[in-house]
Design brief:
Layout lengths: L17 H20 L6 H8 L3 H29 L1 H18 L6 H11 L5 H12 L5 H32 L4 H8 L1 H17 L8 H6 L12 H9 L2 H11 L2 H18 L4 H13 L4 H40 L4 H22 L11 H20 L9 H15 L10 H19 L3 H5 L1
Helix pairs in contact: 1-4, 1-6, 1-7, 1-9, 3-4, 3-5, 3-6, 3-17, 4-5, 4-6, 4-9, 6-7, 6-17, 7-8, 7-14, 7-15, 7-16, 11-17, 12-17, 13-14, 13-17, 14-16, 15-16, 15-18, 15-19
Length: 451
């Protein structure tokens, strides 16, 4: 699938072009999704007492919150190819808001587990975010665009950890008891999700030249059923070993981030005997690194591509993953609060840069099956979180031991990045496309200004 008139420059403070509206709406929508997806995580100490949950049961709810996302991410990319990212995002946000608001009716482990399972579908929003910016931006800036929108979206993992305890505290201050307070607090992100879904439909379009329905009617975009059907697209992605290598890589970076989002607050609460608000604030620092860290991963991916082409992008991905694994194992050894916070920030930096580097490579794997590739690789993040979840549900394994083993797994997974290779023809074509896009970006003209 070839999309014309992609933007060759990110005009950060502009909303005039469809590319930049998609850029800003996609990161904001993904950011809001974190409030629904992980809004309950910083409140788990209260929920644990209210519902009488054991560590194993909490671990099972953590697994449930990311397990269903694996399946939804696999199909959401294909849905983007079929109906376009605009409609896909609208439906996901509006429907996803329902279980977020309804989790307040949970009165047992079983109903709470089912609610977190249903909410997990919201995590598929990441694939739509990456898909939308991939079709809107040219090869010289697509790594930066993908990394920034995903990073600012992932920033929601940090702001959620900080804001949700404050929302909860505000409700309790009104005279509501804690058992009812956490339930009412979850209504807030549900409402915001629904409103964001409506805004996405109103303010964005699928591609630079219009929506998919319009482009297909004009003969500018093939119907997926006629040229590359959904089954064909998915099959092509499934048979590509590079896709599965990136699946493992993304499992070891974004999967780790999801795991930290789920356990960080209760880890600091229990390990260092902090109050709920302080533990949430410290846990939020991990996610707040997304303000710039994932963007840095994409920027470095584009810079490595300038001098090393697609091989340079892969080389940078390997470096970021290797450093993430080392930093995570260091974090697991920290015994004092100050050192734990410091090494957590270093670990967070490389984790999020690795995520940005991953989706600096994804758009070049198979352009005719972009949705399928993005969906499978994106699902890898949640598959990694599910696998990591089993480390933290065991009563006999401490959180620090689980984090050390997780770091070792990341170290091993980093070598999968080296399996991503491209043919000489593709390398030459993408080098030429990069040079053309960079040259266009450097040449002021009315045509570029229109982008």
């Amino acid at each position: 699938m070839e999309i014309r008139n992609k933007a060759n420059k990110i005009r950060l403070f502009s909303l005039k072009t469809p590319q930049m509206r998609a850029f800003h709406m996609s990161w904001f929508a993904f950011h809001v999704c974190f409030f629904g997806w992980f809004g309950i995580a910083p409140l788990m100490a209260v929920v644990r007492d209210d519902l009488g949950l054991t560590k194993t049961q909490i671990g099972n709810t953590i697994i449930a919150s990311v397990a269903i996302t694996v399946l939804v991410r696999l199909v959401i990319g294909l849905l983007c190819d079929k109906i376009g990212p605009r409609k896909a995002y609208t439906w996901l946000l509006c429907l996803g808001s329902l279980p977020v608001m309804l989790i307040g009716f949970a009165d047992s482990f079983e109903t709470f587990l089912l609610a977190r399972l249903a909410i997990g579908a919201i995590g598929a929003s990441f694939v739509i975010t990456q898909y939308h910016t991939s079709v809107m931006f040219g090869p010289n800036v697509v790594g930066t665009a993908n990394a920034t929108t995903a990073g600012w979206g992932n920033l929601g993992g940090g702001t959620t950890q900080i804001l949700m305890p404050l929302v909860f505290s505000g409700i309790v201050m009104l005279g509501v008891n804690e058992a009812l307070g956490w339930r009412l607090a979850m209504v807030v992100p549900g409402i915001v999700l629904f409103l964001t879904g409506i805004a996405y439909y109103v303010f964005t379009q699928d591609a630079p030249d219009g929506n998919y329905d319009t482009l297909r009617a004009r003969g500018e975009l093939p119907y997926p059923e006629k040229e590359h059907g959904m089954a064909h697209s998915f099959g092509a992605a499934m048979r590509d070993v590079r896709v599965w290598a990136l699946f493992i890589v993304y499992a070891a970076c974004f999967g780790v981030e999801l795991t930290i989002n789920n356990i960080a607050a209760i880890y600091f609460f229990d390990t260092f005997e902090l109050d709920l608000a302080t533990a949430g604030l410290i846990a939020g620092l991990f996610g707040l690194m997304n303000l710039f860290a994932r963007t840095l991963g994409g920027i470095f991916s584009d810079l490595f591509a300038r001098h090393g082409g697609l091989k340079g992008r892969v080389r940078w991905l390997f470096i970021a993953m290797l450093c993430e694994g080392v930093a995570l194992m260091g974090f697991a050894q920290m015994q004092t609060l100050a050192l734990a916070i410091g090494i957590m920030l270093v670990f967070s930096l490389f984790t999020q840069m690795a995520e940005g580097a991953t989706f600096g490579v994804v758009p070049f794997i198979n352009k005719k099956a972009l949705g399928a590739v993005a969906g499978i690789v994106g699902a890898g993040g949640n598959a990694g979180a599910v696998a990591a979840g089993f480390l933290f549900r065991s009563e006999s394994l401490s959180y620090q031991q689980g984090l050390f083993y997780l770091g070792l797994a990341v170290l091993l997974a980093s070598f999968c990045a080296l399996l991503v290779r491209f043919s000489p023809q593709v390398l030459a074509e993408e080098d030429a496309a990069y040079r053309d896009a960079a040259a266009d970006n450097a040449t002021p003209s009315d045509a570029i200004a229109a982008r």
